[in-house]
Amino acid sequence: MYTAAVVVDELIRCGVREAVVCPGSRSAPLALAFTEAARTYRLRLHVRTDERTGSFLALGLAQYSRRPVPIVMTSGSAVAQCLPAMVEASLSHIPLLVLSANRPWSYLGSGANQTIDQRDIFGAHAVAAEGLDAATAARGENLDAAQRHARAVVDRLLGAATDPARGGGAHLDIPLDDGLVPHSTTEMSMLARRVAEQGNAAQPQRSYRAPAREPYGELQVDISAPTLVVAGAVSQRPWARAVLEALAPLPVLAEPMSPSPEFPVHSGAAHLFTKTVNRGDLDLRPEQIIVVGRPTLHRSVSTLLADPSIRVVVLTDTTTIPDVAHTVREVGSSVCLVGTSPQQWIRACRAISDIGVEAVRESLAEGGEWPDFTGVHAMAAVADSLRDGDACVIGASSTIRDASRAGLPFAGVETFSSRGAAGIDGTVSTAIGVALCHEAGHPDAVRAPRTVAVMGDLTFIHDATGLSIGPLEPAPENLLLVVINDDGGAIFEGLEPGAEDLRAFADGTAAFERVFGTPTGYRIAGACAAAGVAYHRAETLAELEDLLHRHNEGELYDPEQRHPGMVLVEACVDRHGRRALEQAIAARGGKS
């Protein structure tokens, strides 16, 4: 119990303000230590019964706040449930901390209950892994030395997790022997106070914080050649905003997770940049591309970045260098522009952006071989409803691509999406974590700031248990979840498996619909009823627009629900014909 109290105290001393606990017997000392810390307002505690859901909640909390957030669980397969969130955390440089309780390491291989070798369970997907043998330390006599060692281990782990350039998910495994809990909560409180006093008397242990440095130097870029900026997901938004400000004179093809640029270029006509056709004496292909962060969404961008005739430079605040095609010439963390962009190039980029905007707008308005209410229509309606100050969480599959078609990023709206591994898991829980931190940053607001989460039905189903928030737990006060339900995997409609000749066998056996379309018939209303979340359904674009407007006006909240600040709107769309819609947008955008 002593080691658990020391670990929790040191985490708080080093800046931890949120923690997630999953119930378990072996992890009881950690759970009680965090509960005592929450009781005395040293941090905010969140309890979840599912480690996978809990780890994505911690991911969302850490993603928004940029502070390390620990999740506590017992030994065994409970630890393995955190792997998807750890993968995303490390690829996206988010400081997620897994604190796993364990049986004494001497039990390994003995057949002991709920005992696995979990010390290095995350392997390459953790930026750091440490073990703190509390079971052995508890049998020793020098508690002062054990305390110093425990604090040092926590400091090292936090240093790795929060490193500006290399940070990510980290793992601390803590074997605990029998005699797990104190005799009373009073004893627990006294122990916590004593440990906190010892910590305050010690030398400040904040050396874990890595220097706020950039991993690479400044690049000088001559923009007298036609130059295009491509901005993707970034780790540190303040860094990205400063870089985009320095690049303000240049056209920027920005993905939704990027800060909003001064000179945006709509993605709907990005194909035009891959053309070698001249307009007068101007080639539409850029001679130089500056990559900011990590772009992953658009195939036309990948084509450009793979062209060896284009000079590609990368600006990054982490050690992750996006260079899939091995064409990057230089890497930096800041930039100094020299020269002046050709005005003909600037005019061409503005025209290309206008073409992209019109390609989407006209295709949605005029209709064709597609329904009047698709996922593209629904995402466009949600984008139109966003307000300054909103946070937006978007599912990582077709929805984030539709958000790009809708014109995101927007100034005044921070957008999040799990594009590290581009997986759909954990989106509901991540959104709840983002919403809780977004609201906590405005404690004096008359109405909590809003978070809007948009995802497809399969993404929602993958994490429907994320809605399960107990009555004793903090819950969002202003979270709108929009589930775009096309009963299956819409993204495959526009990919190679969605081609007409691959949809069925000659005898009529379904191919595409069974293994790619994957309809479920899942009743989202039932999930909302079980979780105590207000539910509304839109079957037309007009109905969706009306519901979004009413939510903006504060009309959809239901005080009779268990979680009155959470509202889910199901947009029932049709994915059949989506392929034709995407092709029409691409054709209007200049793709031949």
Strand-pairing-aware structural class: alpha/beta
Helix content: 25-40%
Count of discrete alpha- or pi-helical segments spanning 4 or more residues:
19
Mean pLDDT reading: 92
Distance between the termini: 67 Å
- The gross shape turns out to be globular
CATH architecture tag of the largest domain: 3-Layer(aba) Sandwich
Radius of gyration: 26 Å
Report on the biggest sheet: 6 strands, parallel
Major β-sheet strand ordering: 2-1-3-4-6-5
Low-confidence stretches: none
CATH superfamily of the largest domain: Thiamin diphosphate (ThDP)-binding fold, Pyr/PP domains
Question: Can you count the beta strands?
Answer: 21
Q: Please indicate the percent range of residues in DSSP E strands (runs of 2 or more).
A: 15-25%
CATH fold name of the largest domain: Rossmann fold
Number of domains: 3
Assigned CATH class of the largest domain: Alpha Beta
Organism: Corynebacterium heidelbergense
Keywords: Magnesium, Manganese, Menaquinone biosynthesis, Metal-binding, Thiamine pyrophosphate, Transferase
Enzyme class: transferase
Catalytic activity: isochorismate + 2-oxoglutarate + H(+) = 5-enolpyruvoyl-6-hydroxy-2-succinyl-cyclohex-3-ene-1-carboxylate + CO2
